[in-house]
Design goal:
The protein has 285 residues and is α/β, with parallel strands linked by helices. Helix content is 40%, strand content 16%. It has a single domain, classed as NAD(P)-binding Rossmann-like Domain (Rossmann fold), CATH 3.40.50.
């Protein structure tokens, strides 16, 4: 028996009803869960809030800040398992594999929301900070996806948090933008590999979102400001869950970001890079 989804019945990933149910295989009853990284704040936290109404058996919330996860747990109706691990430390892989092997859940949603962005001129960003962006935005995301995939089946969804910064190369965000370009490319390719299994993969490509991300990015000289076109995490997550059910390979929210994506497809990247160089240089002054 398959799970119901909050999806349109005409979707390739639609299921019989909106209510989730146990899957029975012989005498074994499988627990149906969502795994959310970066769940202590921002998009990760909002995904937990909105998936709370999806009838899952458990929400597995992953982050370093246990106090934040406990605070969120108290606000949710769904049973929560808190997994406090540091995705910068590779030891988390063995820890998570042990938990998965013990519980043998069916993962209905994997949401890779953990990420970091550090902006500035190439010589203002330390080697260690570049490593952090690559380790979290790429290595941890891929490892989490590969580890979780054996526990997913038809109708499951993988949501990889990328960024509109991944559409074209961005000066003064060169490593961050490159990591998000990787996420988009990886997600699009993986989607086609998993089509035969009925597992969808969607790269989420937002612009600026009103979250704590602004407080934890930048460098000693430069901090990005909360100005311009900024949207709420609630709106982005609501839109993302709807589009994921339709099996879209990428999703953006807001007309300015859609326009930027369109321009990135049809306009010379050299022209866009020149514009972004001038634009970001002004910000960095």
């Amino acid at each position: 028996m398959l799970f119901g989804q909050n999806c349109n019945r005409n979707s390739a990933y639609a299921e019989p009803s909106k209510t989730f149910r146990f899957i029975k295989k012989g005498m074994v009853i499988f627990m149906n869960i969502s795994v959310i990284t970066g769940a202590s704040s921002g998009l990760g936290r909002e995904f937990a809030v909105q998936l709370d109404g999806y009838g899952l058996d458990e929400l597995w919330l992953i982050a370093r800040r246990e106090d934040r996860l406990n605070e969120l747990k108290e606000k949710l109706n769904t049973k929560v398992r808190i997994i406090t691990i540091d995705l910068f430390n590779d030891s988390w892989r063995a820890e998570l594999k042990i938990i998965l092997e013990q519980e043998k859940p069916v993962v209905r949603y994997l949401i890779n929301s953990a990420g970091i962005g550090i902006y500035g001129r190439y010589d203002e960003i330390s080697e260690a900070d570049n490593d952090k962006m690559i380790d979290l935005n790429i290595k941890a995301l891929v490892a989490m996806t590969v580890i979780i995939l054996p526990y997913m089946n038809k109708g499951s969804h993988i949501l990889e948090i990328a960024s509109c910064a991944g559409f074209v190369p961005v000066p003064f965000e060169n490593v961050y933008a490159a990591t998000k370009a990787f996420v988009i490319s990886y997600s699009r390719a993986l989607k086609y590999e998993l089509n035969s299994k009925g597992i969808s993969v969607t790269a989420i490509c937002p612009g600026k979102i009103d979250t704590e991300f602004f407080e934890h990015t930048g460098n000693a000289k430069h901090k990005p400001e909360k100005k311009g076109y900024i949207v709420s995490a609630k709106a982005v997550v609501r839109h993302t869950l709807k589009t994921a059910c339709r099996g879209k390979q990428t999703t953006v929210y807001g007309m300015p970001i859609k326009l930027y994506q369109y321009i990135g497809k049809f306009l010379s990247h050299d022209l866009i890079i020149k514009f972004m160089t001038k634009f970001n240089r002004e910000i960095m002054k």
